[in-house]
Amino acid sequence: MTSLSVDQYLAEDVEFATRDEAIDQLSKKASEFGGKHIAYGILNPGKSSPRLAFDAITTYSPAWLERYFSQSYHIQDPILKTASSARIPFDWETAKYDSTPLKTFFGESVEHGLGRQGLAIPIHGPNGEMCALSFNADVSDGDWIKMRQEVLPHIMLFAHQFNEKALNIRRLKLPEITLSPRESEALKWAAEGKSVWETSRILGISDHSVKSYLQNAQRKLACCNKLHTVVTAVRLGII
User: Fold this and answer.
1) CATH class assigned to 6-174
2) Is residue 87 packed enough to be buried (19+ CB in 10 Å), middle (13-18) or exposed (0-12)?
3) What is the pLDDT of residue 189?
4) pLDDT in the model for residue 51
5) Domain ranges of the chain
6) Residue 173 and residue 82: Cα distance in Å, rounded?
């Protein structure tokens, strides 16, 4: 791990305007801190938004994100559950449980490239915002104890800087989100479990058109995949 200076991070602006730029920021910081991944989530946007929406930006692989949402792990993830009520940073170890489903969850996460250790930073805002940033590493237990002590003040500072920027962008962009009638229809049928082919037959359009509408909706809602897009659209009341 490179030498870290608090003054360095106080002087450094966290700047990004798109999801890709935000992911680049997270990747850069994960490397600087000596870890593998960083994940950030808006668990509750608070009074600034009329509905609950889960917005996630991570450096995790597309394969793990697909698995995560397809298995509805975002509902049972113990890290998210603990972060929703925690007021101070916590080690992933304190949020792990012995049930078979959760053993499967953590086992699959390692198979998809996540490290065994993690540190989560819950962030509560003045308007009811509930966000969290999670730092992931893969070192020995002894090295993790030392790393955790060294990285905690820096990852906390970065978490708050990143969170402020993310919420500001979300407030600016959220009112602008509108889906076309076809994009909404394609998402509604996806929410019913229909495939691209089935949706194309129902709507009387080509498979290519359905894929295009779903991709447009995913881009507008800044989501990771089709399932994430459906979940976000439902929670925002768009469909």
Assistant:
1) alpha beta
2) exposed
3) 93
4) 43
5) 6-174, 178-236
6) 28
